[in-house]
Amino acid sequence: MNTTRTITFTLNGAPVTTTVGLHQHLVEVLHAQGLTGAREACAQGLCGCCTVLVNGIAVSGCLYLAVFADKADVKTIEYSPEGKLDAVQESFIECGAFQCGYCTPGFVLMVRQLLDEQLDPSDDDIKHYLAGNLCRCATYPEVVKAVKLAAKKRKVAA
Amino acid sequence: MNAPTSIVGQPLPRLEARAKVSGRAEYVHNMRVPNMLHAKVFRSTLAHGRIRSIDVGAARAMPGVFAVYTGEDIRKLIAEPYYGPAFHDQPILAIDKVRYVGEPVAVVLAADVHVADNAAALITAQYDELAAVYGEVEAMNSRAVVHEVLKPAGTFADLKYLKDKRDTNIALDFHLRRGDVKKAFAGADHVFEHTFTTQQVLHLPLESFATIAEPGDGSLLLHSSTQSPSFVRTEIARLFGWPDNKVRVKVPYLGGGFGAKVYVKSEALAAACAMLARRPVKYALTLEEQFYMITKHATTLRIKSGVMKDGKITARECEVWWNGGAYADIGPRVTQKSGFTAPGPYDIDHVHIDSYALYTHLPPAGALRGFGIPQLVWAYESHTDMIARELKIDPLAIRRKNILREGRPQATGTPMKDAALELVLERLATRMQWDKGFDKGTGTVKRGRGIAIGFKASISPTTSMAIVNISADGSCALYSSTVDMGQGSDTAMAQMVAEVTGIPIEKITVVHPDTDVTPYDMATLGSRSTFHMGHAVKNAAEDARDKLYALARDVGLSGETTLIPDIFRKKYGMLAGNIVGVGSFIPGYTPPNADGQTDNATPFWMIGATGAEVEVDTETGEFKVTRLVNLVDVGKPINPAIMETQISGATVMQLGFTLQEQMHFTNGQVTNASLADYKIPGIRDIPPMENEAVDAEQRSGPFGAKGVGESGTFGVSPAIANAIDDAVGVRLTSLPLTAEAVFRGLAKKAGRELL
Lengths: 158, 755
Hints:
Chain A is α+β, with helices and mostly antiparallel strands. Chain A has helices spanning 26-32, 87-95, 104-117, 123-129, 140-157, and strands spanning 4-11, 14-21, 51-54, 57-60, 73-75. In chain A, helix 2 crosses helix 5 (140-157). The mean pLDDT of chain A is 97. Chain B has 18 helices and 30 strands. Chain B starts with 16 loop residues before the first helix and ends in a 6-residue tail after the last helix. In chain B, 60% of the residues are buried. At the A-B interface, helix 2, helix 3, helix 4 and helix 5 of A face helix 1 and helix 16 of B.
């Protein structure tokens, strides 16, 4: 039985062709590509550390089989077409919304997706949306502040 | 140009902020090196048993497997493969016996991590099952003994008397005697005695333990997620019989530590495998495997007080049993160093403490944010409120009456110095508006409030060293073995260097721990870095500044007013050369006598208090924490923004240990080893919180500062239990506090029998 497959996908804007095991999840394949911003932590899709965007939608990269990324557009926290931080990243820094930083890429990607859907989320909206992102340093109050600041920054920019 | 600035005290963002928000910060768990093998472990399924045989045949035969090793293979490499900071009791892989479910028994190496994992699952072992002991109190006199002979490491002078002790589970017994408790109890108007328990929980940093070991020629390079690179170097070198400089330990960022990653954790097995295989080996644990590595002590605490009618506490007797699991790790230090604060921050003339570190057949327990203090505060601050309630004295009033005032001796006899206990208590009372009326709720929703205050000694005597290196262009590097695991030490230390040298912080880099490069530091633990390493860094920066000024004088310039590059240019004819400043620090300390008495138990005291408000549903027992107010004495904060995240982060961690976290066991097997079944606080579990560092100064600290990482944990658990009691008159004495326990308490009060 052939247990590998060659897949082609777009990774942060550049084409990638690679051979993956059928059992391999997306985070493993990204690490092999030298991108470690998506991280395996709980391995159950419960903590959000492994968040990756597949065709613009946030997925748990530790549960997402790499073969399913064939022909997909994959973006990670490392994607930065303009080479600078965006409003969400700036707000996380300004509000001190992280400590060890291990979970931060997952938070940033989810907050971007939240603000794409809602211009001006309430505290409840924010907490509901980020319920799947865990931070053992518990920098949650600062994250809520950062989301609100990022919403403001985006509005000003728009 | 190098005039002093006032960068200390500024809420600057972390130095590594951009790397962290863009996913570029480096962690060992995500690292790989060329030609690397992955190690996966086969673990014991028995809590206590003699190993009859281990069958590794099927694993070894699996295609892609490089090697399979057992304890016997390790023993061929290292004659005495046992490690530990207090006792050399923990084998790299089990030898002869297994002592807890989850103990590593064999290891598989393969280039493909999945092959290693699958092969490990094919290993089987036969054991002769032996009787096991799980409870800390039971272990005191159990016939089941975890270790036949105790093997103290000799690191601590106070443990030497345990050498060769046989057939006991007591790894350490600590006793403190002050005054005459017996007489004082006899003379007291009231005597109260209560027993409390806490549950076994664990750290769960989202970056699990990971080490990559690269073998050299009679040497090793370890990339490790450790909080104690200097200790790892020495301990691994000791195992191999090498000088320290044959082991090099490098540490990038840590994805959380919380005390889990101190001393030796994943390093010994990775190192042994790399030397056996002659290939780089990565041993990275899954989150589930963290449940088998290190945990926080479950405890039983008995506390008895003699109290006068007016609420004055005259005598206190404390007995504490610490469930250390199968290997001592740093538990004996918890037992002693935290044990001596068991009577609480109160002025009590007659004190009697017995504190016992116990071996049991559970996963080992060690240091976890607070180092035993949260368990002790849980007991003494619940006890304080129970006494107040009985005597119909206000909980604040009884604390005001008994609080240890500046200059008064603590139970060890050490006078309190720069310990803002009174101020913290008063600020908490003010913020809680304690003297104002409080809405106690109506109908089936009752409201209550509670307070609790605790304190902690720092670890002493321990050493820190630092190097400050100024380059000719005026940039600067700080070499320190303090590990930044999220607490922001890189930033705080750089602020101190900037303050002393006048070099802008943008021009300062912090070189991460690398034992071939950065000098010795005891470890990043116990909230010691700001104080201990802070002093070393300040000394090194002052040394560098003084040398720079001397160099300037040599060439006829003023160091104070000349740009740094101009000084070097004049000296060396071009931009060349360095100025290297060195600094070290060890605080004073007097070892306790046989009665636990000393005039100098700690270089500084950490103070933390919490006020809680709760709402309790009297029909279901469900309760909600509606407000948490956290007060701390951190001296003068180096970086107020980072400090506040440390307070609230510590509080939330302890909130998890108070309300939701608990390792469950069946016959020694943990049954909830995943984030699905062991719930840590998420963003929806955070009550409204206020944090305040009182206006204080640690006069002996660098820039008036002291440690902050743990203080937020101290008061959380008892404040909430006290608030629940205030709301519905139900007293909980076991952690975690659950709706079911409240419901049972309500039923009992109403005279209803529950199954």
